[in-house]
Amino acid sequence: MRGHPRRTITTAALFATSTLLSGCSGLEAGSPDAELTVSTTTAVIADLVEQVGGDRVDVTSIVPHHGDPHSYEPSPGDAARVTGADIVFSNGLLLEEPGIMKMVHTNARKSAPKIEIAEKLEEYGGTVMKLEEDLGLDVLWLGWAVEGEVAGDGSQVRTTATELEGPGELRVYLTDTLGKPKVYIDSADGLDDADSFTLPPEAHTHVNWAFSEPGTYRLTVGGQTETLDGKTAEIGSGTFTFTVGDATEAPDGTRALDGGHADVALNAETGKVYVRADDDKSGEPARLPADDVVLDVPDRAKAEVPKEAPYSFLGAAGDDVWVLPQAVIGKHVHGDMDPHAWADVANAGAYVRRIEAELIKADPEGKATYEKNAAAYLKTLGALDEEVARKLATVPEHNRKLITTHDAFGYLAKAYGMEIAGFVVPVPNQEPSAAEVEELGVTIREKKVPSVFLEPNLATRADVLRRVAEDEGVGICTIYGDSFDDEVDDYVSMMRHNASELAKCLGEDAR
User: What is its main location (predicted)?
Assistant: First the structure.
């Protein structure tokens, strides 16, 4: 729970929330006489801007309804709309797919403020919390990370594989939300500048690491910064050692990592390359010199090359391949802080206060309008906060566990006394084994959850969770995280739906 007494709701507040207007979608154009043209990255932010701006703003969202800000690829039309914007609002904290932010910084006018709202949320009365990730994989969950700041809006860091020593081939690739692979590194045809990818500063991404033969591999990588005007600068290189297969031993004096969460990391400020791994004792990331660590890929990571044609780059269908999976389907670049702050209604109030302040800076003549609209909507959010708290207070303590398809509900859980029991997604391009399906069933039984929750825009990811839930006889319910749809198209409606659905699907009689 939040660090203040459990919220209560009065009859007056109940009446107030029952009569709230739902607001506009945030995707349609506003008044033709608007004083400001505003572009936002998500429909959630677009709705909040409309609530504050009213008729003085014309708002469009880059990510449409049903879209996923973690993976949406902007179109030329999106770029054109950003070009005409007087101000651009994004969430920040690396919520948005990097291509979205690069498009914003490339196309928006230099004079147009580019506001990443959540980056200063605490200054406006909000709270920001660390992103917790734990999928319980039985092999090392190895990502790729960039640490350190880089000067210049929209600057990125490119990491390139320059050399590989080993008995077989290495492929590093990402499986998108439709199950299609995008290859970043493939040693089969030699390594060159194409064996690379970019990340924004202070970002982490999930990828698959696939090795064709058992044995010891040494991968050398180098990094460079890239600015929007095309300038580059080399920032360092380093070599990482992998042991593949149970018969392969780690060199003396090294520490083997064979489980938990770790990243191959490059520091853009110092030029150092290292392994960033979770520390079991402190919970904080430890930075381990690359020469002191071996990344273990045991025989339990062995799989078969899928028969689907898009995976033929891994070898012939049915061939053995040792894979450290990316675990979360889709492009999922993020930082250390959880960006989904609006899931706590009190934080939505901080979003509104930041939006109010920035609109006044951009349009001082509209100050009275923005202050009036913001004050009215903050009252709406205060009543909504109490309504959500009241509904979720009806959920019995033993049912306050969330299993979802996406790690987007940590703020909701913390604010309203829930527990994240897990977010369950399939391992990319691998059909789960009977044992894995059984383990998921055991988790649902042990947690005694009456229902699991799917997000409408991510439902196609959740076939395994859906099947197991049906087999276990638990409910399958809907919750909204990053996106609206045709039925729920504003923030107030989204949070009301989530509260009602959670109360219904986790209630005493839910099963």
Answer: other
Tokens 């099963």, located at residue: 511
Predicted local distance difference test score (pLDDT) of residue 225: 92
**Helical segments of 125-263, H only:** none
- For residues 131 and 335, the answer to whether their CB atoms sit within 8 Å is yes
Residues 338 and 204 sit within 8 Å (Cβ to Cβ): no
Written as one string, the DSSP assignment of 410-476 is: HHHHHHHT-EEEEE--PPTT-PPPHHHHHHHHHHHHHHT-SEEEE-GGGGGGGHHHHHHHHHHT-EE
- Residues 246, 87: Cα–Cα separation, whole Å: 56
Contacts of 444 (CB under 8 A, 6+ apart): 403, 452, 468, 469, 472, 474
Q: Report the chain's mean pLDDT, rounded to a whole number.
A: 85
pTM: 0.71
Query: Which contiguous run of DSSP H or E holds residue 16?
Result: helix 11-18
Q: What gap in Å lies between CA 163 and CA 96, rounded to an integer? A: 32
Show the tokens assigned to 243.
């042991």
In this prediction, residue 328 has a pLDDT band, given cuts at 50, 70 and 90, of low
Quickly tell me which residue has 């959920």 as its tokens: 395
Strand-strand pairing, 302-304 and 320-324: antiparallel
| 72 closest CA partner among 485, 482, 411, 480 | 482
| Nearest residue to 362 (alpha-carbon basis) of 37, 31, 28, 33 | 37
Identify the CA nearest to 497 among candidates 268, 284, 343: 343
Return all residues near 373 (Cβ < 8 A) that are at least 6 apart.
Answer: 51, 52, 53, 54
Q: Which of 67, 75, 21, 17 is nearest to 44 (CA)?
A: 67
Which residues lie closer than 8 Å to 162 by C-beta, 6 or more apart?
191, 220, 221, 222, 237
Where residue 242 falls among pLDDT bands split at 50, 70, 90? very high
pLDDT digits over 74-130, tens only? 999 999 999 999 999 999 887 888 789 889 999 999 999 999 999 999 999 999 987
Whether the Cβ atoms of residue 102 and residue 226 lie closer than 8 Å to each other? no
Give the three-state DSSP class for 350.
helix
Distance CA 496, CA 122 (A): 25
138, two tokens: 């039985």
Query: Per-residue confidence at 22, pLDDT binned at 50, 70, 90?
Result: very low
Ordered domains of the chain (ranges, CATH): 11-128+340-385 (3.40.50.1980), 141-324 (no CATH), 392-505 (3.40.50.1980)
Task: Give the DSSP letter of residue 17.
Answer: H
Query: Of 8-12, 216-220, 433-437, 456-460, which gets the smallest average pLDDT?
Result: 8-12
